[in-house]
Structure formats: C-alpha cells, structure tokens
Design a protein that fits this description.
- The chain has one domain: START domain (Alpha-D-Glucose-1,6-Bisphosphate, Chain A, domain 4), CATH 3.30.530.
- It is α+β, with helices and mostly antiparallel strands and 167 residues long.
Length: 167
Amino acid sequence: MLLALLCLTTENSSVSMSQLISGKVELQVSANALWKCLSKDLANLLPKLVPKLISGVEILDGDGGLGSVLIMRFQSDAGDSYQKEKIVEMDDVNLTMANEVLEGGYKQMGFSYFKTRFQLKEISASLTSAECTVEYETCGPQMRSPEEALQASFFIVKTMEAYLLSQ
C-alpha cells in the first residue's frame, strides 16, 4: 500500500526524475534478420524461445506496429504475472523500437515510468550491434534494478541470435 501511495505521489509530481541506463552487445547475425524477430515476430517468438520465462504474448490493440498494446504473461508460481506494454517508437529504416510499460511488471516493482529502447546497427552482413537503453523513474523501493532489466533485454536478443543461427 505504501509503495502504491509513493508511486501515486511521484506520478502526480511535476518534477521529473527520469534516469537512463544503456549498453551494447554484438550479435553474429544480420541486423535485418534480428529486426524481423524483434519487431515483427516478437509476439510469436518469445513464448517459444523462452517458455520458462514467458508463457504468452498477446496483441491487445493494433497490428503489432507503432501504437500497438501487448501483454506479456510470465511464468510464475505466485499467480497471474504480466506486463502490459505499448510500442511507442518503431522505425523500420533506423531499426529502432521502444516499448513503454503501462501496467504490471516493472510498474509493480517500484517504477512509475519504464521504457526500453532498442537500436540495431549493422556492422557487417553477419554482425550487428544492439544498443539497449532503459529509461525509468522510481517511486519507492525497487524489487528489480534497471541493470537487471538491461541484462534481461540482452538475454532476449542473445536468445534471438541463437534461434537465427540454428535456422
């Protein structure tokens, strides 16, 4: 209850406390192939690639592109665990996408605002740099760190890399 009150107070405050954390990883696949997995096939691939983590992804509104709202359901012994996200940036030319958490997930872990942004850059035909930036605002004690979120994002793209290399 106290965390919810802290979050409500922070969300209504006019003072923004956004923070950023970012990192890069190189992947042994083409930028276009990885982009297709990340932007076009995400809802279908995630439950198949990480079934012990994600039980399902459903597009609630939109076509999976910019402005779409999706819900990720996580495997959890504690009951219904989910994260609802909105795709707030998608650029097929610059291979950039960003998702903002609307409810559940990080919003239940001490963050009043949480956005993950990916940008892929082709280094060569079979080498891609994936930069991930996490932008967040806190509203009390965090159950997960932004660094853990960054590492989870890299885990997802590394899993996609392994999938693409196995095809």
